[in-house]
DNA sequence: CAGATGAAATCGTAGGACGATATTGACGGA
DNA sequence: TCCGTCAATATCGTCCTACGATTTCATCTG
């Protein structure tokens, strides 16, 4: 097997914090006190510290010596840099996926279904599910195993968490529609259209970032 | 300050292992026994385990439950996937660097100097220095702070370590010349030429990977 | 009110303990 | 001889305690 038979405590803790960020349980900028977290999660300090070290590698938390760990809060510039890098990687994924001509349909259907479901209820939880399903599928059809390792999706989750209070329902729907467009073009095997769809989605996101108020971001 | 005032034990250990991989002290595939490493590095198990967790995040070591950590050894496919991703990111860096029209000259000069020095002595240590200096400068000129975080250079070091015994001096020089060409085009602010130079370098690397024997890689 | 100061909070590292699991090698039967 | 079983060993995962190092913050002093 490639995957471990059982999941260790460290992974569970890291997942708990990651999902806590997506659900709003942890807020960007929040200070993480070791003693408190060990109690709350019912684990030892060793395990927690390993998990925090793991998360700091993903750029989710920052650790300052003797000052502890805190959930990262991105500056506007960091978000722009992040989007710039992310776009290239998603473009690559879309290109590979469209070119593979594989059994994309069945895979991308999941993302499309999720998008449809989001259109119906439209709360935040299903929005997260759409994002997750979309990227999972995209990386799967792309067939490049380095892509999911490198792509800073967890860091993008930080961004999502930061801007959530300032994002309108219309913007969210528009973004989901962007995912749908990419899935569609990848499904069709149209490489150029897929890349264009990715570019359009990120152009839209960049525009949104430009319009957000300063309070949505960390100071430089 | 953005950087911590002092460096912690964890970082020192991680750096020691990383540089150990570049210098050949640690070999891809090698099993890392905690007890042995704690003695060798003169640190506690807590610190070592944090460091290993950190390195596993970079994809340098793999940790299997109850079986310990070992230096990753890439399969041919993993190398291809890695190069595919790496190319996109270096392309982005080159494009940004060339477009910025910043004070590139003074920055890239360092890389060019290193390349020239390598041409003279041509041992492996200076080759490593060239690589390091080149990427440092490139990311600096690109001005995107997410790039150095995301770019899997440490993983590429693994690849370099694996193929070292099978790489000829001519191939190494050719690769260094590729760096020089990229630095030159970025310096000139020629975006298209810079991207072409990156593409050429990676095409060459891909060709080399295709010609390497199976023993240079891990089994799938 | 600014700066010094000391106590409290928190982190970094070390090291020990013990259960859990994988690996190894011995053993016996087909 | 070969193969499966099983015990012994090595190693890891997790928890715990301890203590020095450093930051943080409230308090005191001028």
Would you mind describing this structure in some detail?
2 copies of one chain form a homodimer. Chain A is mainly alpha-helical. The first copy, chain A, folds into 2 domains: 3-71, Arc Repressor Mutant, subunit A; 76-216, GntR ligand-binding domain-like (Four Helix Bundle (Hemerythrin (Met), subunit A), Up-down Bundle), CATH 1.20.120.530. Chain A has helices at residues 9-23, 34-41, 45-57, 76-100, 104-120, 124-142, 146-150, 153-163, 169-188, 191-211, and strands spanning 31-32, 61-64, 68-71. In chain A, strands 1-3-2 form a 3-stranded antiparallel beta sheet. The first copy, chain A, starts with 8 loop residues before the first helix and ends in a 9-residue tail after the last helix. At the A-B interface, helix 3, helix 4 and helix 7 of A face helix 3, helix 4 and helix 7 of B.
Give me some keywords for this one.
DNA-binding, homodimer, three-stranded antiparallel sheet, 220 residues, mainly alpha, 2 domains, 10 helices, 70% helix, Four Helix Bundle (Hemerythrin (Met), subunit A), Arc Repressor Mutant, subunit A
Any chance you could write out the topology, listing elements then pairs?
The structure is a homodimer of 220-residue chains.
Chain A: H1 9-23, E1 31-32, H2 34-41, H3 45-57, E2 61-64, E3 68-71, H4 76-100, H5 104-120, H6 124-142, H7 146-150, H8 153-163, H9 169-188, H10 191-211
Helix pairs in contact in A: 1-3, 1-8, 4-6, 4-8, 4-9, 4-10, 5-6, 5-9, 6-9, 9-10
Chain A binds a DNA duplex (30 and 30 nucleotides) through residues 5-6, 8-10, 33-35, 43-47, 49, 65-68.
